What we know:
The protein is an alpha/beta fold. The chain has helices at residues 49-57, 79-83, 92-95, 102-113, 118-131, 136-139, 148-161, 178-195, 206-212, 230-235, 240-247, and strands at residues 10-19, 23-33, 38-42, 64-69, 72-73, 85-88, 166-170, 198-203, 215-220, 223-229.
Amino acid sequence: MTAPSLGPLLSVRGLRKVFADDVVAVDNLTFDLSQGESLAIVGESGSGKTTTARIIAGLDSATAGDVLLDGRPMAGTGRRRRRDVQMVFQDPFGSLDPRQKVGAAIAELLAVHFRLSKAERRSRVAGLLDEVGLDERHASEYPRNLSGGQRQRVAIARALALEPRLLILDEAVAALDVSVQAQVLNLLIDLRDRRDISYLFVSHDLAVVRQISDRCLVMCAGALVEQGETRDVLDNPRESYTRQLLDAVPRPGWIPRRRQAGTPS
């Protein structure tokens, strides 16, 4: 594994993304992420948080700006440095091949990126599944036979198979039931402690952000609105947009406004 640098693990400088019809998705975004840190990006739909994550993961290209890993540009880097940054998506079923068994999907990555014998790959697959709370029985299952939480654990195991230093999690628990969501969040917290891995956590759920991140960035219309320690930002927001996000979170005892007669459900 690459030795960590003295500076930030990830540096984003002046990032800008413009889509067709001059739609600005990300506008001059700059931030750093340290080794072993968990940084959340929050904002409403359309704020630019997922576009930012996809650019960092190499899935989209930036119109302008730089993404640096250990101070060196990510663009055009070799296989090893691309392995350093992996992404887990909201819908694990969409990122897993429905025709491929779970164990084969993980073993395939290991075969491409590491010089391992078949027995070593089988052992590594079993170890990865165990690390995310699954066992060897799940290796022989197809994704359709697993629950949503189990599929997301498989997606995390696949990402970890490449030994990344930065894991990008894009709404990674948003589609899960509350109880399963808590289990996966606890798993992510444990993995971070064990592996000293960094997280870039994209979410609109401020309760999840509070639990999983050390710092957070608040984005609106592609621009950075506010940033700081997560507790400070969520407990004492400086910007009106951040306060609006917090005010939109249902409080205990919240009752939906009564639907007017004749209004379609």
